Amino acid sequence: MKTLETKRLILRDWTLDDLVDFYEYAKVDGVGELAGWLHHASKDISLQVLNGFIEGGEVYALELKENHKVIGSLGIHHKSMDYDYPGDVHYEIGYVLSKEYWGKGLMSEAVKKAIVYAFEEMKVDVLWCGHFDYNDRSRRVVEKSGFKYYRDSVYDAKQLNRMIANKCYVMTKEDYENNKSSQ
């Protein structure tokens, strides 16, 4: 994946050197659960997930420019269509941020950069994003980023052993162009 930069962040490929930073935020109760996975009980679990990030090549490490600490992740994943929605190339953005950095606008900054990359360089037709209905922090990121509400759904959070009400949002290439020209 191409390295991306914002004012405060570097979005880059993961490396094994990121294990300590990754485990530091992934072990915190309440972080993973807002994204559908259990917080990590050990570094071994974080290592398994980290290896998947490295092999899959769809998830960015979010590194702070000021201290080079990895504080979260942002994935841009190919989405197989389970909805009848126009466009040939569909991707979905998902993200997690260290609890220590919530409320600072960092994830909105990263998502906005990922949107530009998806439409300008990946040539995406439709970009999806979602959040659990009770996750107001994620809802604010989605709305600040210009996504439009599409529909409610139910997410099968297998690791959490439950179904969770989910809000789905969409941004088309046309929406992106309109948002870009109005700024």
What is the structure about, briefly put?
The chain is of the alpha+beta class.
Q: Explain this structure to me?
A:
There is one protein chain. By secondary structure, the chain is α+β, with helices and mostly antiparallel strands. The protein has a single domain (4-181), classed as 3-Layer(aba) Sandwich (Aminopeptidase). It contains five helices and eight strands. An eight-stranded mixed β-sheet has the order 1-2-3-4-5-6-8-7, sandwiched between helices. Helix 1 crosses helix 2 (43-56). The longest helix is centred in the middle third of the chain and has 15 residues, at 106-120. It is globular, with a radius of gyration of 16 Å.
List the helices and strands and how they pair.
Elements: E1 4-5, E2 9-12, H1 19-26, H2 43-56, E3 59-64, E4 70-78, E5 90-97, H3 106-120, E6 126-132, H4 136-144, E7 148-157, E8 162-172, H5 173-181
Parallel strand pairs: 5-6
Antiparallel strand pairs: 1-2, 2-3, 3-4, 4-5, 6-8, 7-8
Helix pairs in contact: 1-2
Determine the CATH superfamily: Gcn5-related N-acetyltransferase (GNAT)
How helix-rich are the residues, as a percent range?
25-40%
Cα-atom Rg, whole angstroms? 16 Å
Oligomer: single chain
Features:
alpha+beta; Aminopeptidase; 8-stranded mixed beta sheet; 31% strand; globular; 183 residues; 30% helix
